[in-house]
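chain below, 347 aa
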Amino acid sequence: MNQNGDNIPGFKLPKLKPGMYKRIGVGVAAAAVLLYIGATSFYTVQEQERAAILTFGKYTSESSAGLHFKWPYPIQDVITVPAELTQRIHIGYRQESDGAVPVDDEAMMITGDENIVSADAVVQWKISNIRDYLYNIDDPDKFLRNSASSSIRAVIGSEKLDYAITDGKTVIQDKVRVLLVDLQKKYNTGIQIIDIKFQDIEPPSGQVEEAFREVTNAREEKNTKINNAKKYENDIIPKARGEAQALLERAEGEKKSRILNAQGDVARFNAIFAEYANNQSVTESRLVLETLETILPNAKIFITNSNSDTVNYLPLNELMRSTKDSPSAPAAVNPAPSAAPQGGDAK
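prediction:
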């Protein structure tokens, strides 16, 4: 049948039982509904994502990575966010495919001593609360960029340029991080600040930059010389202290040695004196003989009695000759004290 209601030659509608068309229509509609329910009831969350479940447009729960089931739309809907991914934003420049492109409106700021400085930073962050992230702020990226820029300007605006471009970089980073974390907590943004690092804090390019570069180089040279002087000091002082301690210990040892030797000499003298007091003549003779043996080690000693009235004759030449002829002869003649005549003295 054509548009005018006429039958098309060669085409005939199949003859079906009454109510069959209705059943087919219901089946097709049911299949479409089932297909729609199946397509909107299952969803997948990637490894670095988390999903917020909305029931009739209201946040009710969230799910982690994997395959999940929900009620079909519009009963429930799903919003996935990269909550497990650490993200970055750049302040003062943009990272393009061909390199970094500076953004002077963000980078240029005034220091506490009314100088201009250029500061570039990277903020690392991630989503800590999905509900706050989705509903408490309209544009999370823009809010984070503005809050980071305002925190940097607040801190650098209270510092001097010379300090900001030299020794104060780490301190400024810590202060900016504290301010930025406080802003996220104050507005419940659901954003966690992991870290903030300054790429450059330097004066604007041109003569000002060159002048501050010279100042920086001079300061670095000063610090290098100070460090070298401290190194030399740390090397010399311990050696001098060690040598002084060694001298003290040697002096103490010499002192103790001399004291002990003196004490030994005193004890020896006291012992000799005690023996001398007991028998003075014997001790005197023994001391004389020991002294002669010490000062005349190779001398021949002859002892005779000089208490007689006659002149003693000693054949010294013959005694010396006999001593040379017989090496085994005694070195000295030491008669017993009883052999001396009565009343004589041994000499």
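The mean pLDDT is 80. The CA atoms of residues 318 and 324 lie 10 Å apart.
thats it, cya
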